[in-house]
Design goal:
Helix 6 packs across helix 13 and helix 14 crosses helix 15. Helix 1 links the parallel strand 1 and strand 2. It is globular and about 55 Å long. It has two domains: 131 residues, Rossmann fold, CATH 3.40.50.11890; 194 residues, Rossmann fold, CATH 3.40.50.11900. By secondary structure, it is α/β, with parallel strands linked by helices. The longest helix is centred in the middle third of the chain and has 16 residues. The chain is built from 16 helices and ten strands. A four-stranded parallel β-sheet has the order 2-1-3-4. A four-stranded parallel β-sheet has the order 7-5-8-9, with helices on both faces. Helix content is 51%, strand content 16%. Bound molecules: iron/sulfur cluster. Iron/sulfur cluster binds next to helix 4 and helix 5.
């Protein structure tokens, strides 16, 4: 058996192209946060000189990569992510890792996105026609993720934490789409047999994945359920009301995360209405530029919105817990 060629990802990219090129995708965010000691990884990055005033995700991914030289190539998103990721790519390049650039042009520039896809395919030695075939092969898996999402907001049979974990893991399918699909089917069979539940308060969670542990579960203990995980749902590219996109370029044009905030606002409003949400929590990461998107979200969404900020790995702290309790109380 040949050794898998591992491709590190710092954010969601057209994973179908990587799979078509015979690569095994490895989402570095997921590896960092599911590591047995993510706080230790962050500390190690700081000991190596990365500043305290740098987003925790970047430090965690960097330290994880240092321990995993087998991830010899990493895709660096040059537009549509953040300048911290650019800095991370420079550091990894200096450690001898190969860097493959990928950029998300403007959402209104489908030809630009097609050029980016073609360049990525070229760099990864993949055939775009094969990548389109992979996209079609992944449709049943994405349909199952849609089922999982509906079991969350329509019947309360899948809780917010489970929903989050499955959807964020769809950025790389844990490196093995077939195995992921089989595990997902088994999970759905088990979840469907659970009794339906209706929470007192229905919430949406916006923003980058929280670095803190147990946010969803903490809310559940207060009688509130997260029925919409905005960014994880975007990572998973669910068919939604429109059905599957007809091609890769359209699929990654519909993806709201890398583009300007207006597309996110339209998506969040629609999902809040469909899901009957009572309120929204906007999670922001300390030292992340996306904190600037809090104002437009707050001004445009017209719903109760609580902004939370997280810095380091660890459980939900007492102050955050108090703020959540007050918010849930008011909504309830
Ligand atoms: S949380 Fe913000 S700063 Fe950190 S990697 Fe993500 S986009 Fe960049």
């Amino acid at each position: 058996m040949s050794t898998p060629r591992l491709l590190g990802l710092t954010s969601t990219i057209p994973v179908e192209v990587a799979l078509a090129g015979g690569w095994t995708p490895v989402d570095l965010n997921n590896r960092f946060i599911t590591h047995p000691d993510p706080a230790g990884l962050m500390q190690r990055a700081e000991d190596l000189g990365l500043p305290r005033t740098l987003c925790a995700w970047i430090k965690g991914m960097y330290a994880w990569c240092l321990d995993h030289p087998e991830v010899a190539t990493v895709v660096g998103i040059t537009r549509g992510d953040c300048s911290n990721t650019h800095g991370l790519m420079e550091l990894l390049a200096r450690q001898g890792r190969g860097i493959v650039p990928f950029d998300y042009p403007d959402a209104a520039d489908p030809e630009g996105l097609e050029r980016s896809l073609a360049r990525l395919a070229d760099d990864l030695g993949a055939d775009l026609a094969r990548a389109e075939q992979v996209r079609r092969e992944l449709e049943p898996l994405r349909d199952d993720l849609e089922r999982l999402d509906r079991l969350t907001w329509q019947q309360g049979k899948v809780n917010g934490a489970e929903n989050h974990l499955w959807l964020v893991s769809a950025s790389d399918f844990d490196g093995d789409p077939e195995d992921f699909a089989a595990r997902l089917r088994a999970f759905l069979a088990e979840a469907e047999a659970r009794p339906a539940q209706e929470p007192r308060v229905r919430l949406g969670l916006l923003g980058v994945p929280p670095i803190m542990d147990g946010l969803h579960d903490t809310l559940e203990q207060m009688g509130a359920a997260v029925m919409f995980n905005e960014v994880p749902r975007q990572f998973a590219m669910l068919p939604g009301e429109q059905g599957h996109a007809p091609n890769l370029s359209e699929q990654y044009r519909r993806y709201t995360y890398p583009y300007e905030v207006g597309g996110r606002i339209v998506d969040i409003k629609r999902q809040a209405e469909r899901r009957g949400l009572h309120g929204l929590i906007h999670y922001t990461q300390t030292f992340c530029w996306r904190q600037m998107q809090d104002s437009p979200l707050r001004e445009s969404l017209g719903m109760p919105l609580l902004t939370l900020e997280g810095d380091r790995v660890g459980p939900v702290d007492a102050r955050t817990r108090l703020r959540l309790e007050a918010f849930v109380e008011v909504l309830g």
